[in-house]
Amino acid sequence: MSETTRHHRACHLCEAICGLTIETLGTQILSIKGDPEDSFSRGHICPKAVALQDIQNDPNRLRHPMRRVGNEWQAITWEEAFALVAERLAGIRERHGSNAVAVYQGNPSVHNYGLMTHSNYFLGQLKTRNRFSATSVDQLPHHLTSLMMYGHGLLIPIPDIDHTRFMLILGGNPLASNGSIMTVPDVEKRLKAVRARCGRLVVVDPRRTETAAIADQHLFIRPGEDAALLLGLLSTMFEEGLARPGALPIDGLEALREAVAPFSAESMSLRCGVPAEQIRQLARDFAAADGAVCYGRMGVSTQAFGTLCQWLVQAINLVTGNLDRVGGALCTEPAVDLIATTSGGHFNRWQSRVSGLPEYGGELPVSALAEEMLTEGDGQVRALVTVAGNPVLSTPNGRQLERALDGLEFMLSVDFYINETTRYADLILPPTAPLEHDHYDSTFNLLAVRNVTRFNEAVLPKPAGALHDWEIFVGLAKAYAARLNTELKPTLAPQQMIDLGLRAGPYGDGHPLGLSLERLREYPHGLDIGALKPNLAARLKTANQRIQAAPPLIREDLQRFAARPLPAADRLVLIGRRHVRSNNSWMHNYHRLVKGKPRHQLLMNPLDLDRLGLVDGQRVRVRSRVGAIEVELAASDEMMPGVVSLPHGWGHARPGVQLDVASQQPGASANDLTDERELDVLSGNAVLNGVPVSVEAA
Predict the structure, then answer these.
(1) What global pTM score does this model have?
(2) Residue 653: is its pLDDT beyond 80?
(3) Three-class SS string for 251-303?
(4) Which region, left, alpha or beta, applies to residue 138 given φ > 0 means left and ψ of -120 to 50 means alpha?
(5) Is the pLDDT of residue 1 over 60?
(6) C-alpha to C-alpha distance for 395 and 674, rounded to whole angstroms
(7) Helix H segments across 587-656?
(8) Tens digit of pLDDT for each residue in 295-306?
(9) Which DSSP letter does residue 229 get?
């Protein structure tokens, strides 16, 4: 008989990378618990990690390549699948050109190092400019701001949450997200510790979120108007002599001061709905704190001035001397240093065919994906490859994208579900499940609130006949290269790549730790390398090694902001929301996460219910420019009047979807209401917050 085995690894279902202790008996999972010896998460665990066993045992999860024949799915061999992909994609490329094939990569790609290391081994051979990803759904403004200010799109300063004495959060709800572009397990204890050391936590959000509920102060703000508040704060700091930028090498401070001077707290109050005196006092308190940090996340990125918001967040930290300061915002020094080993990125080297939207880092804004398929002419997208993504539910105007997918000549999905998007695929290639492969968090160690590293061994054996993600891409690459009769360069396994990265990194061959993959295996609970520390000046990748405080393209966007009309007082607008038991669209088929009271209702302030003649619990119809949905209404005084909230990622009652648990609580898709025409014009990022809607009885 098999013996019980104890394993240690990090959960990779969200950005917090909490350490786990997993007990197994053969291939049976007996328990999943938080690891109290984990160097980073200290035993913390959230409900998502416990559901890893639901993923492993899910009867809906695909185990073999599946080809769609009419409305039926048939299993085929890996060899047949690779040959089919090579023939179909090469044929489309020969008839219509390289750009006739598009690629979409979803959020889970960064949670799987095999995808990070090897997806481009195949996708790069397609030679297409029509590449899209979830980046332009919710975080592109972060990367574009860092590229323009610091010279590298991944050089993003992280809140020093363990030492700050004043944390200002806009558009973020870490208690639900477990941190986001801020890898921070056990975030509730860390936020409460800010208050325990006599610090302050201030949350700005149109909803009194779970994080706002534990804050010292919560300020309601009109959705889509965070730039106004941030401008009011920054102009106050300059006007009242609160600016103390410190000793960092900086260009453009005077240009920054001149650019924000017209946007006084009084004029910005009319836009954002926060009283002018509260704006001014917040600026004074922030500047006076002994270590403060401003953090803006998804809610401020997914609006019409998302890049402007992220620039202003950085500028506030900069001018108050809190950038590159303990207790402020600091950059990591990860063991595998992607800043040192990758180019900083590029922007607007080409544009999308139909709307002329700018590329970033070789990707176009995903809001343009459907129109590139639907608009006829030279360069029309006729085939699509999706990787670990569900854009029908996660990108704007999902119904339009459905129509586009239905007209493709060929579609390939690397995924282990027949979901709202992959049901349109001609072929689905399922990888091994999360616990069946090893993993290294190259992305989230780069964004962590401490310098940490660990290698995660596989918990369960790889099933016979299954392939890891990276092996799928190697197989596709070989078949495609053979079809085109081109030479394919050899590649290494992901483990070998990580070993090389560790050895070349700051704690590798030239450091006393001498980190390598073999050495890292000696630390099954992970290795804490130390607290973040000031290092930005040495890590800058700008041409002159100086911070660019007022990038011209971003500064020019202030003109667009100034010309925008004031928001209508009687307008009802939609925002999203997150829940700790959910992560976008792909965790609704697990009983442990969806059990209990449904969490996908439309939240509305009771004053708005009375004004519209609606009642708590009734079915309502929500309309926007692009479509309508029906959903249950829930009265909630946590909502700002004039604002309604619906979580994204639901909407599972679509024909052909094979998700048994999700279909029992299908909900409605918020992205059947979001508008693909509404963008942060500068970056092309989608606008998911502040969507004008009407609500009526269904």
Answers:
(1) 0.97
(2) yes
(3) ECHHHHHHHHCCCCHHHHHHHHCCCHHHHHHHHHHHHHCCCEEEEECHHHHCC
(4) alpha
(5) no
(6) 8
(7) 591-594, 606-612
(8) 999 999 999 999
(9) H
